């Protein structure tokens, strides 16, 4: 009998010295042992070729598909063939899993829903507090040779300000506890959770997004990317925000319309933005993001809110354990089942 094949399409942890190095798959080998064949997606020395024909070739005959930022498509599933048993997303967000397609094909899919709550809530707080205290303009001015306490503007006392959280799941709740400590009031907008949950976290639920936008001094996004939330924060939404308010997005790039955001920054509708995520992943690849990146009131990071040594080690081990369980047919009750339960929204 041939060994089961597992394709990791685009694992970031496999890239050492610019190229994927199979010797770095130590955790995966440890969990899966020598009897499982590990296959990795093609890479051109700068990036994984996630949509290339070579990816389809490597998918042929696999038993398990593990994706990081690769989009699951009909083509990829067709290339994998009938032996494909399970799809695993190395991460929390499932927008690239194509849950509707997987459900249609009866393919179970899993994510790692809770490995980086600490990291994302800390990173959100870092972006938010950098904005509140104007750390980036201060840094730029001082290393540029000028000592000026007013560079970047005069901050406001956060203890008189209101924090607004959109999406009150695992990360939104951790943000309420951590970042909420700096603010006098925490508002929550999440149409899928009850008011009592917010109150249990010292926050107040509001009924509409507009209400939250109109009352918050810093708005932070923690909802998933779905057809309903795509461009949730567009020019019209930004018009509802307070002129001195900040926007933070460490959820998904497509939640925010880049052109609307630039108009809001340039027109002074809002005071600044902290962004960890963009669409496309690298904002330099889309000219609509260029003026946002160049704006002095913006602080950005490269979709790495989830990252820490501990989180990476944990997600790798948990993915490998999911793969092993799937290969052994032990999937009943595993944490992280995405299809069919979450596919509807
Ligand atoms: P979760 O599933 O625990 O919570 C998401 C919450 O959003 C749920 O309570 C849901 O009811 C709510 N929601 C859904 N639609 C909404 C809408 N239209 N308006 C307001 N709320 C809505 O997910 P978790 O773990 O809190 O993660 C949230 C998102 O953060 C993920 O979907 C992922 O896209 C993103 N993420 C980003 C990371 C990064 O490195 N930047 C790392 C991990 C997650």
TrEMBL record:
<dbReference type="InterPro" id="IPR029752">
    <property type="entry name" value="D-isomer_DH_CS1"/>
</dbReference>
<dbReference type="InterPro" id="IPR006140">
    <property type="entry name" value="D-isomer_DH_NAD-bd"/>
</dbReference>
<keyword id="KW-0560">Oxidoreductase</keyword>
<dbReference type="InterPro" id="IPR006139">
    <property type="entry name" value="D-isomer_2_OHA_DH_cat_dom"/>
</dbReference>
<comment type="similarity">
    <text>Belongs to the D-isomer specific 2-hydroxyacid dehydrogenase family.</text>
</comment>
<dbReference type="InterPro" id="IPR043322">
    <property type="entry name" value="CtBP"/>
</dbReference>
<feature type="domain" description="D-isomer specific 2-hydroxyacid dehydrogenase NAD-binding">
    <location>
        <begin position="126"/>
        <end position="305"/>
    </location>
</feature>
<dbReference type="Pfam" id="PF00389">
    <property type="entry name" value="2-Hacid_dh"/>
</dbReference>
<feature type="domain" description="D-isomer specific 2-hydroxyacid dehydrogenase catalytic">
    <location>
        <begin position="51"/>
        <end position="331"/>
    </location>
</feature>
<dbReference type="InterPro" id="IPR029753">
    <property type="entry name" value="D-isomer_DH_CS"/>
</dbReference>
<dbReference type="InterPro" id="IPR036291">
    <property type="entry name" value="NAD(P)-bd_dom_sf"/>
</dbReference>
<protein>
    <recommendedName>
        <fullName>C-terminal binding protein</fullName>
    </recommendedName>
</protein>
<dbReference type="Pfam" id="PF02826">
    <property type="entry name" value="2-Hacid_dh_C"/>
</dbReference>
<keyword id="KW-0520">NAD</keyword>
């Amino acid at each position: 009998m041939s060994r089961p094949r597992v394709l990791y399409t685009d694992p970031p942890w496999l890239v050492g010295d610019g190229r994927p190095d199979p010797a770095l798959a130590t955790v995966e080998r440890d969990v899966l042992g020598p009897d499982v064949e590990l296959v990795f997606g093609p890479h051109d020395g700068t990036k994984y070729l996630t949509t290339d024909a070579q990816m389809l070739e490597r998918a042929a005959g696999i038993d398990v598909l593990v994706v990081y930022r690769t989009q699951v498509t009909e083509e990829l599933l067709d290339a994998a063939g009938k032996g494909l048993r399970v799809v695993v997303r190395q991460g929390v967000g499932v927008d690239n899993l194509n849950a509707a397609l997987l459900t249609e094909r009866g393919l179970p899919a899993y994510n790692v829903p809770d490995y980086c709550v600490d990291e994302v809530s800390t990173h959100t707080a870092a972006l938010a507090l950098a904005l509140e205290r104007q750390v980036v303009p201060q840094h730029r001015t001082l290393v540029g040779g000028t000592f000026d306490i007013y560079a970047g503007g005069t901050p406001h006392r956060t203890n008189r300000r209101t924090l607004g959280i959109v999406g009150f799941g695992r990360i939104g709740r951790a943000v309420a506890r951590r970042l909420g400590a700096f603010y006098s009031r925490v508002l929550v907008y999440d149409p899928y959770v009850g008011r009592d949950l917010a109150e249990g976290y010292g926050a107040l639920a509001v009924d509409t997004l507009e209400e939250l936008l109109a009352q918050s001094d810093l708005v932070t996004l923690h909802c998933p990317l779905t057809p309903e939330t795509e461009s949730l924060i567009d020019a019209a939404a930004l018009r509802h925000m307070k002129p001195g308010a900040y926007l933070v997005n460490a959820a998904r790039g497509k939640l925010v319309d880049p052109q609307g955001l630039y108009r809001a920054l340039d027109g002074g509708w809002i005071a600044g933005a902290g962004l960890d995520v963009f669409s496309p992943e690298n904002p330099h690849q889309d000219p609509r993001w260029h003026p946002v990146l160049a704006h002095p009131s913006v602080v950005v990071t490269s979709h790495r809110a989830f990252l820490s040594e501990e989180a990476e080690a944990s997600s790798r081990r948990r993915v490998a354990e999911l793969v092993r369980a799937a290969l052994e047919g032990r999937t009943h009750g595993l944490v992280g089942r995405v299809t069919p339960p979450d596919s509807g929204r």
